[in-house]
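If you are new to this repository, start here. Below is one unmodified record pulled from the training split, so you can see the exact layout before writing a loader.
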Amino acid sequence: MSTYVVGDLHGQISLLIALLDKVSFDKKRDRLIAVGDVLDRGSRVGDLLNFLYEAAGAGWFQSVKGNHEESFLRFRSGECLSWYTSPAFGGETTLAFFAKMGENYARTMEEWISSWPLAWSDENAIVVHGSLPPVSGTSLGDLDLCETRMAGDAGGHECLELRPPNLYPSWDGRLVVSGHTIVRKAGFRKDGIAMVDTGAYRTGILSAFCLESGQFHRVSGIPE
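And here is the target side for that same chain:
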């Protein structure tokens, strides 16, 4: 069995399928974990969500929340987040998809996204969108702080917003795999931290990291 952690997708279903093909992904044996920011920006967000919803039902896909998922849920709950629909943030593509679906399916899909955790972990690794929040007075992060540490005026969880240089390895030595910040090439930023967001919606490069082999994989194409 192999576990692949894929970078921010933002609707890039064709790149994801190409990546799964490249690594010979076995849906009966392997797992795919997204670092969040599945939603928004890309024109095929709806196709991607439908694909991943079926994959989750089949048991081979799961995602942690990104700041885009958290913002979407806050917007849908009635919060006044004017920036969510701005071209830069790209929420309109997700809202357009939800506007076209039936009420029951929209509720089901929204509840599914809401169920995504802030972090995923096993005995060797932690997947979080931005970074583990730091333990006060140290340069190390703690998984247990993800739920409680909020990002000031933004109103969201700190673990979804942190960027370099504010990235923190786990205090217990587990590898932290994160997205959120676009890097030219997926890799290890420093001991204990792997970064996999290569900006697929903008660059056409989608990357993933295999937890078991320690290898990075990438595909390139035209963003949709």
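Two things worth knowing about this chain: The CA atoms of residues 37 and 92 lie 14 Å apart. The chain has a mean pLDDT of 96.
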